[in-house]
Amino acid sequence: MVDTVPTTPVQAQAQPVLVTLPGEIDMANADSISEQLAAAFAPGVRVVIADMTATTFCDSAGIGMLLRACRRAAAVGTELRLLLPCPRVLSVMKIMGVDAVLPIYLSLEGALARPGPRRTAPALPRPRREDAAAILADVNRKHASSVT
Questions:
Q1: Residue pLDDT, tens place only, 46-75
Q2: DSSP SS3 for 131
Q3: What is the CATH classification number for the domain harbouring 48?
Q4: Count of domains forming the chain
Q5: Which 3 state secondary structure label does DSSP give 49?
Q6: Which of 9, 88, 119, 133 has fewest C-beta within 10 Å?
Q7: Half-sphere exposure of residue 62: CA atoms within 13 angstroms, side-chain side
Q8: Longest Cα–Cα distance in the chain
Q9: How far apart are CA 87 and CA 93, in angstroms?
Q10: d(CA 148, CA 33)
Q11: DSSP code at position 114
Q12: How many C-beta atoms surround the C-beta of residue 108 within 10 A?
């Protein structure tokens, strides 16, 4: 869900756009979330905050979608920021190197406070396939056990 406030064109550049993401991000909904984020990367928008406050699970499809969204945002001069207070999801993001590509904040105040420099999307880190597979298997196993 994209939260926007009617503004004048000058204000639109200064106001971050908040996109609320669901509790679980996986291959079933990654494409629709990608579309929501892409809609937020409108002309004149400098910062989009992906609010993952409710997110307790994010699989490899979700991580890939976020990294592609980062590139798409940078291509139009927008900075994508993640609001991610969930320790379990945050841990996976750090292990996968997402924090080296996308700025991650634990609070909305922090995500709003930092001025957003324009930057190009950096090269994505490439974790070893064995490490990534083991990490995702562990996350999926923990998720499956918490659901049942």
A1: 999 999 999 999 999 999 999 999 999 999
A2: helix
A3: 3.30.750.24
A4: 1
A5: strand
A6: 9
A7: 22
A8: 50
A9: 10
A10: 25
A11: S
A12: 15
